[in-house]
Amino acid sequence: MLAALDLASGKMVYRIRTRKRFGEFLSFLKILRARWPGEKLYLICDNFSPHKHPDVAAWAAGNDIELVFLPTYASWLNWIEAEFAALRYFALSGTDHHSHAEQGGAIAAYVRWRNARAQPKRDFAPESTIRTWTGYMINVA
Question: Is residue 117 a part of any domain in this protein?
């Protein structure tokens, strides 16, 4: 499954593919580009190798998409990871799907339910000291 979370609406966009190579990821980027034409897209990605493939980087650069990579072992910083956890819990845990198609149908039903109730992702940790800190930024080389 390849998925993206639109922070402005809170909705997920996804595609289920048999593999997750750079070609499938590039195809997914084209779907996202078509969905938001004329806008600069910032995609937060983990360090999965297909995300960093030279063909992906070249296409993204030429189509006003900036791939922003999280630090290694920090995928938990990506808001979509919590969505994946919920999807596993509500659509997959404790199930015994007889086929990949049936499993895909359960995922699709959950995402439809979730997107119907989605809300924008904003005001995350409004009381955090990171958001209210007034210290000095120091750049050390």
Answer: yes
